[in-house]
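Quick one, C-alpha cells below. Sequence please?
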C-alpha cells in the first residue's frame, strides 16, 4: 500500500498495540473502515490508534478484543500502557540514545538520569512512590531501566556527552547529605572523563538561559539529529531539522553563556564541602 506508515512495536507499549492491531486486521483482510464498523468506531479512529496518533482506551481495547475474538489480549496491552513507569515516547528515544554518537543534555531541578548515582536515583523514585505518582513495582522498573542506559555509555567508542545543568540541579538536596555528597562526587568524576563536558548554568544567567524545560539533543552516527523533550505526561521525539536546528543553536548559545567546566567543577566541589 502506497505511503503506508511503517510501525515499530518496540518503540513503546502504545506502538506495540497499534502494530498488533494492524497485523490482525490485515490477517482478516479488513480495511480500517470495516473494522471500525464492527467495533463502533470510525476508520479514522482506527488509523490514529494504529500509527500512534491516538492512545487506545480501555473501552477501545474491549471493542477490539470482541471484534477480533482475541479474548482479553488488547485489554491487557492497554493495562500495560497505563501502568508502565516510562513515559510514552521515551522507549523510542532510548533506542536512539543507545546508538548516538553525541548526547547533549540540559536539565532543571534534578541531576540528569544518565549522571545519577544509584542512591540518588532511588531517592527520586522513592519520592514518587510516596506521592502516589508510581507504584513500588514501577519504581523498580524505572531504576532497572536507568541502570541499563547508564551501562550502555561504556560502549566502544563511547558517545560524547555534553551536560549543562541549571544551578538548581546541584543545589536541590535529594536523599539527604550523604546521598547528595556522593552525587556531587559523581559529577566531578563525570567531568574528568575524556568524552564528556559538564557545565553549570548559574541562576544569574536570568533571561539569557536558552531553555525553560529540560531538553536532550542526539547526533546519530549518520550525523542526523534528534531532539527529545517531555511534558508531565508524554515524551516527544523530533526529527524534522526545521524544528531541531533552532534547538541545537539555542543549546550552543547556552553552552557559551554557562560557566566553564573548570568553574562549574569548582562550584560543585565547594558545595560538596558543605554536605559533610
Amino acid at each position: 500500500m502506497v505511503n503506508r506508515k511503517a510501525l515499530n512495536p518496540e518503540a513503546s507499549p502504545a506502538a506495540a498495540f497499534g502494530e498488533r492491531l494492524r497485523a490482525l486486521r490485515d490477517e482478516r483482510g479488513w480495511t480500517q473502515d470495516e473494522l471500525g464498523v464492527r467495533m463502533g468506531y470510525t476508520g479514522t479512529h482506527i488509523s490514529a490508534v494504529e500509527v500512534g496518533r491516538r492512545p487506545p482506551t480501555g473501552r477501545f481495547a474491549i471493542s477490539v478484543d470482541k471484534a477480533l475474538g482475541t479474548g482479553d489480549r488488547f485489554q491487557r496491552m492497554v493495562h500495560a500502557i497505563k501502568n508502565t513507569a516510562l513515559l510514552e515516547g521515551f522507549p523510542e528515544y532510548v533506542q536512539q540514545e543507545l546508538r548516538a554518537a553525541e548526547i547533549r543534555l540540559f536539565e532543571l531541578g534534578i541531576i540528569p538520569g544518565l549522571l545519577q548515582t544509584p542512591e540518588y536515583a532511588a531517592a527520586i523514585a522513592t519520592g514518587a512512590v510516596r506521592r502516589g505518582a508510581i507504584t513500588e513495582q514501577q519504581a523498580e522498573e524505572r531504576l532497572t531501566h536507568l541502570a541499563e542506559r547508564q551501562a550502555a555509555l561504556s560502549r566502544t567508542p563511547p558517545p560524547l556527552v555534553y551536560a549543562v545543568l541549571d544551578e538548581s540541579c546541584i543545589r536541590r538536596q535529594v536523599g539527604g547529605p550523604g546521598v547528595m555528597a556522593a552525587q556531587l562526587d559523581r559529577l566531578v568524576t563525570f567531568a574528568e572523563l575524556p568524552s564528556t563536558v559538564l557545565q553549570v548554568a548559574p541562576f544569574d544567567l536570568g533571561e539569557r538561559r536558552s531553555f525553560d524545560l529540560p531538553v536532550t539533543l542526539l547526533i546519530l552516527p549518520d550525523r542526523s539529529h534528534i531532539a527529545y523533550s517531555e511534558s508531565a505526561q508524554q515524551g516527544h521525539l523530533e526529527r524534522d531539522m526545521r524544528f531541531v536546528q533552532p534547538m541545537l543553536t539555542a543549546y550552543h548559545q547556552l553552552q557559551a553563556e554557562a560557566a566553564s567546566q573548570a568553574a562549574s567543577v569548582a562550584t560543585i566541589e565547594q558545595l560538596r564541602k558543605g554536605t559533610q
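The beta strands are 102-107, 160-166, 196-201, 215-219, 225-230, 235-238. The mean pLDDT is 89.
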